[in-house]
From TrEMBL:
<protein>
    <submittedName>
        <fullName>Uncharacterized protein</fullName>
    </submittedName>
</protein>
<feature type="transmembrane region" description="Helical">
    <location>
        <begin position="172"/>
        <end position="191"/>
    </location>
</feature>
<feature type="transmembrane region" description="Helical">
    <location>
        <begin position="145"/>
        <end position="165"/>
    </location>
</feature>
<keyword id="KW-0812">Transmembrane</keyword>
<feature type="transmembrane region" description="Helical">
    <location>
        <begin position="197"/>
        <end position="215"/>
    </location>
</feature>
<feature type="transmembrane region" description="Helical">
    <location>
        <begin position="71"/>
        <end position="90"/>
    </location>
</feature>
<feature type="transmembrane region" description="Helical">
    <location>
        <begin position="222"/>
        <end position="245"/>
    </location>
</feature>
<feature type="transmembrane region" description="Helical">
    <location>
        <begin position="297"/>
        <end position="318"/>
    </location>
</feature>
<feature type="transmembrane region" description="Helical">
    <location>
        <begin position="392"/>
        <end position="412"/>
    </location>
</feature>
<feature type="transmembrane region" description="Helical">
    <location>
        <begin position="12"/>
        <end position="30"/>
    </location>
</feature>
<feature type="transmembrane region" description="Helical">
    <location>
        <begin position="324"/>
        <end position="341"/>
    </location>
</feature>
<keyword id="KW-0472">Membrane</keyword>
<keyword id="KW-1133">Transmembrane helix</keyword>
Length: 740
């Protein structure tokens, strides 16, 4: 891998162009013609649109995930270039395709450079690069946006490793270039996709270890320069990512999740029907559905690796005697294959007939046995977040591809280039999708994207005003809002992406946090009124469409219209709100008489007179994920202090009539340390009583027992428990009820 690269002629560069065009087509990255996917493109394009709203483009989205600017949990390395294309005048759909084409070009040229390093001729290297781009583990992941690009970029990442281990120039000037490339690859990887960042880290580490063992003459260089560069680059990249998203890691998944999303061995051995053209034509594919298998379709439509694995192993047998590189690459591939199985070995392991299709997590008793990888998945940082275990197969694909390139170079040197061409050609043809069907799919994606603008964005611009704060309720994993909010020019609390949602929800205002994800509960209409009355939102949109799945398939049916009708009637009946019904959604606002901030007192009085189901008792004996709190942790239905200062609880933001109330607070108290409880209303501006917490009565499980007088009806009673960083307290429940 350290030999000279052949001289490149103009003919070689001309031959690259059609190969690149085919690569772009395979990924659906054709601006003005096709888009790789719809749902994830809509989601990511929302970030790009919001980034591009400022100049130079920002790194944070300000139109959704409010009130704080939203970082993108993964894919900044894709969304930001797309923002640049949007700033240059491209439509978001075409900007997404252009961004994808850019990174696929980088991936293709990197694979080509690796093939040249492996002593393949320039024209055969083009064929080898096309072979890599054709791997279904890459293009079949386009529905997961940056995951597919990250997989495609594995040659780019490993080119940095090859340059480190086999430099043409180990002098200081050469090392600066090597270090800069390596650091850049780490930053691209961490901000593109966490899965391939881990594959890069593990694969590079294994390759460097192999070089250290097999190349005694380079040990000093690798020990003093290579190893520190490797560790330092990954640490710096990770720290930059943490600084950007503001969180060191996301909650790891359970082992049943790793097991459910682990690959079944049969997925490696024969393909799934409807994915690969030639295999379907030959009748050698198998129909697979979620009704039989755990996980989701991505587990079985991306993992057919048998052809390239067989060639890769054969290549190792042929080339292993020529140096340590083939063995190191084989070990990397086998490690990826092993990890892709997940914590349990599965061979045609299907769900029992009586198990619900919704049960994607796999119990351990349904597998053949343990693979042992659960030790890594449970305990090792990085590995704990690789919850879709099967994706490790991308590292195996890459390793076997490199071994295939070694075999092609061996055949070409033996004056048998025809066999190298035939080998690569057969593998490429076996990797191709159904041509016409895939073309229709990617071009339809763009047509649907443009229809979203025509059918929905244009309509929303007539009902929502630029700069307004809008809540789409009930909230969920609202992919569509990512695109709608910046397209219309409003701000929204909602955001798409489960990781982004968990980050945003921590900063939501109290009433917004009281809504339950995807639920229209008994207090839903009341909370909508309070959200507007407290000026925490200028407008509330009640969508008739599913804001997750409508982004993946447009036009989308108004599946929630009927269930929303009773809510809309209830809201309109208050006389305090206006309801504007559209084809795909309804917009709820304060009535013009109460819209101005100067009318707040009149609005509060009207809500009090409404006496909208004001209960005689407020409280709870258990807390859940919707419970608003600034500090502390939720454990088994209780809230416990964690040496932080702030409100351990605040809520429930429900109405109460005038009168005398008894407030009882239950829990265990070790150290009060200045903790107190108060009762407020009108966004905390009216205080009905504040009480210090003492140890009196704590031994009986009663932290506080006090009388509170409400001089008038309150629309949004808020009970707040403030703790210091020295307070040691567990809150188990409370009651605020009318005194006898």
């Amino acid at each position: 891998m350290n030999g000279p690269i052949p001289k490149l002629t103009i003919g070689v560069y001309l031959a690259l162009l059609p190969a690149l065009a085919l690569a772009w087509t395979l990924y659906g990255a054709l601006p003005g013609i096709a888009v790789p996917t719809l749902g994830q493109a809509v989601w990511a394009s929302g970030f790009s649109l919001s980034f591009a709203d400022s100049f130079p483009p920002s790194l944070f989205a300000v139109h959704f995930g409010a009130p704080e600017p939203a970082s993108i949990a993964f894919g900044l390395a894709g969304a930001y270039p797309a923002a640049l294309f949007i700033a240059a005048g491209m439509h978001p759909a075409d900007a997404y395709s252009a961004m994808t084409a850019f990174w696929i070009t980088v991936a293709f040229l990197s694979a080509w450079r690796i093939a040249l390093r492996l002593q393949l001729g320039p024209y055969l290297a083009i064929l080898a690069a096309l072979l890599w781009i054709s791997m279904p583990v890459g293009w079949r992941h386009t529905g997961f946006s940056m995951v597919s690009i990250g997989i495609a970029l594995l040659p780019f990442y490993f080119l940095a490793v090859v340059r480190l281990v086999f430099p043409f120039d180990r002098e200081i000037r050469g090392r600066i270039g090597i270090a800069a490339f390596y650091l850049a690859a780490c930053f691209v990887a961490v901000f593109m996709d966490g899965y391939t960042f881990m594959m890069f880290a593990v694969g590079a580490g294994l390759f460097l270890l192999g070089a250290f063992i097999a190349m005694p003459e380079c040990r000093r260089y690798l020990l003093l320069f290579g190893a520190p560069l490797h560790a330092g680059s990954f640490i710096l990249a990770y720290l930059a990512y943490v600084a950007y998203i503001g969180k060191p890691q996301f909650e790891p998944a359970s082992i049943p999740f790793f097991r459910g999303w682990g690959a079944d061995v049969t997925f490696f051995l024969w393909p799934s029907r409807g994915v690969l053209w030639i295999w379907d034509m030959l009748g050698l594919s198998e129909a697979r559905t979620s009704a039989r298998y755990f996980g989701d379709a991505s587990v079985w439509i991306t993992t057919f690796i048998l052809p390239v694995a067989v060639v890769g192993v054969a290549a190792w047998f042929v080339t292993r005697s020529k140096g340590w590189v083939a063995t190191a690459i084989l070990l990397i591939a086998l490690f990826g294959l092993y990890m892709s199985l997940g914590p349990s070995l599965k061979f045609a392991s299907v769900r029992p007939p009586d198990m619900s299709v919704d049960q994607a997590l796999m119990p351990g008793n349904l597998a053949i046995g343990s693979t042992g990888s659960a030790i890594l998945s449970k305990n090792v940082p990085g590995f704990r977040n690789m919850r879709a275990s099967y994706r490790w197969v991308a590292l195996a694909f890459f390793g076997f591809w490199m071994l295939t390139v070694l075999l092609m170079a061996h055949l070409a040197k033996g004056r048998r280039p025809f066999f190298a061409i035939l080998l690569a050609g057969l593998l490429i043809v076996g990797n191709l999708p159904h041509p016409l069907r895939y073309w229709r799919e990617t071009t339809t994606n763009r047509a649907s994207f443009m229809a979203i603008d025509r059918d929905l964005v244009t309509d929303m611009r007539q009902t929502l005003r630029p700069g307004e704060m809008v809540a789409f309720l009930p909230y969920g994993n609202d992919f569509f809002v990512n695109y709608l909010a910046p397209s219309v020019g409003v701000r929204s609390y909602n955001i798409g992406g489960d990781k982004n949602l968990s980050l945003a929800r921590r900063e939501w205002p109290p009433v917004m946090r009281r809504f339950s994800a995807g639920e229209l509960d008994a207090d839903f209409a009341r909370r909508v009124l309070l959200l507007l009355a407290r000026r925490e939102a200028d407008a509330v949109v009640l969508p008739y469409i599913d804001l997750l799945w409508a982004a993946h398939s447009w036009p989308s049916p108004p599946v929630f219209r009927e269930s929303m009708e009773s809510i809309l009637e209830e809201l309109a009946s208050t006389g305090l709100l206006t309801v504007d019904k559209r084809d795909n959604y309804a917009v709820v606002r304060l009535a013009p008489a109460f819209a101005a901030a100067a009318d707040q007192q009149a609005l509060n009085d009207s809500i009090r007179r409404l006496r909208w189901n004001a209960p005689d008792s407020l409280g709870t004996d258990s807390f859940n994920a919707q419970t608003p709190h600034q500090v502390g942790e939720l454990t088994a239905g209780t809230l416990r202090t964690t040496s932080q200062t702030g409100f351990l609880y605040h809520g429930p933001y429900l109405p109460a009539e005038a009168g005398t109330y008894r407030l009882t607070v239950k829990g265990t108290l070790e150290t009060p340390a200045g903790a107190w409880i108060d009762v407020t209303s009108s966004k905390g501006t009216i205080n009905h009583g504040r009480f210090p917490i003492t140890r009196h009565g704590a031994a009986s499980g009663l932290i506080l027992d006090e009388t509170v007088q409400l001089a008038g009806s309150a629309a949004d009673v808020e009970i707040r428990l403030w703790v210091s960083d020295q307070t040691d307290l567990t809150l188990t429940g409370y009651r605020f009820e009318k005194a006898d």
